[in-house]
Design brief:
six-stranded mixed sheet, Nucleotidyltransferase, domain 5, 14 helices, 2 domains, alpha/beta
């Protein structure tokens, strides 16, 4: 791959989300004016041992600090392998990359208590990759009174706002979140809606012994259980106004099990969980995104055709498309976003949107680990 044009720069974004499936890596090139384009991608799956370790650390318990530190080291090595693949595939050298934005793996998100923990050992990653790392993106927003999440709406606003339309970008990862971009160019609104793939994947793993329900095929064979859906949807989080964010602390199998007082068919529970995800997203759009003209989906859940059909039935007349049609494939939006956020940090520009996170003011995000 040739060097970027004059006054342009390369950045890498690394994202491992709540789904705990693996690492998405995105190489982007940015012009001096800040217009960025996706140049190359790479994916690194988690091995079963690391996934189990991270899942255990994500549970509310008296976790071993040593286990968390060791998991961070293992993650840094996996991140470095993803970077190495991107460089090998493109023929670039570490010296040609201005910076890497590494979100890290969230294992605890407690904005109401003022903290959010992401593992990843960015100092080791900087040593292994030989590239400057920007990490710990959430802490600065939290310090300013914000939720520390979601952070990608700032990128959505920069990249997806044109041409003008009342447009919603919905990311369906482990957790679902949205960004509302108005045709008038007002400040974007964004927040977490609720579970995305998280509960669906966990239930499929328990009963199918598979990491996920491919294309929602199992859910499609089930029937929604109205009383279970109503009980799950009564959770106060769904009805709290934004700014708000959530994670595995709220949505997990232990929470779900408390409501399974009847011996429901497993496929019917899966159908109900899929409907819960769709309902949470649709309600968020109805309640906070007036006169939405189009919805663009990204994240792993965007490929679940059963989930897309459920969303379409709840949003009649609103076109549902993938972000591929806006220039970024649905699987790579978040990794792209953290490459862009690294650029914001290294150019001393804010990366948060106070209207989204609730922070008192815009902040330059992240801690910088020089190569």
């Amino acid at each position: 791959m040739p060097p970027p044009g004059e006054n342009s720069e390369y950045y890498i974004g690394l994202m491992s989300g709540t789904s705990l499936d693996g690492i998405d890596g995105a190489l982007i090139t940015c012009s001096a004016q800040g217009r960025c384009h996706l140049a190359h991608t790479a994916y690194q799956p988690f091995d079963a041992e690391l996934r189990t370790q991270l899942l255990a650390l994500s549970q509310t318990a008296d976790n071993d600090l040593e286990s968390a530190a060791l998991a961070g080291i293992r993650l840094a090595r996996r991140y470095a392998e993803t970077v190495a693949r991107l460089l090998a595939d493109t023929g670039l050298t570490p010296a040609q990359i201005r910076g890497i934005g590494c979100h890290g793996q969230t294992v605890r998100h407690r904005p109401e208590q003022g903290f959010s923990i992401q593992l990843g050992n960015p100092a080791l990653l900087a040593e292994l990759a030989g590239i400057t790392i920007v990490a710990d993106f959430r802490s600065r927003d939290l310090a300013a009174g914000g939720q520390g999440a979601p952070l990608v709406p700032a990128f959505h606003q920069a990249y997806f706002s044109q041409p003008p339309a009342n447009r919603v970008i919905v990311n369906i990862g482990g957790i679902s979140n949205l960004t509302y971009l108005t045709a008038t160019g007002d400040t974007a609104l964004g927040f977490d809606c609720g579970p995305g793939n998280l509960l669906l994947d966990a239930w499929a793993e328990r009963h199918l012994h598979k990491p996920y329900d491919h294309d929602g095929a199992w859910a499609a064979r089930g029937t929604v259980i109205p009383e279970l859906l109503a009980a799950l949807h009564a959770l106060p989080f769904f009805h709290r106004p934004p700014p708000k964010s959530t994670g595995r602390e709220t949505f997990n199998l232990a929470w779900l099990d408390k409501w399974l007082t009847t011996d429901y068919a497993a496929a019917d529970v899966q159908a109900t969980l899929l409907q819960l995800t769709a309902t949470a997203i649709a309600d968020a759009i109805h309640d906070y995104c007036p006169q939405t003209q189009e919805v663009y989906l990204c994240g792993g859940g965007a490929h679940n055709s059963t989930l897309r059909r459920a969303l379409a039935s709840l949003l009649p007349g609103v076109p549902l498309k993938l972000t591929d049609e806006r220039g970024i494939a649905a699987d790579w939006v978040e990794a792209f976003a953290f490459a862009w956020l690294a650029r914001q940090t290294l150019h001393h520009a804010p990366g948060n949107l106070p209207a989204v996170t609730g922070a008192k003011h815009p902040c330059i995000l992240g801690a910088i680990y020089l190569a």
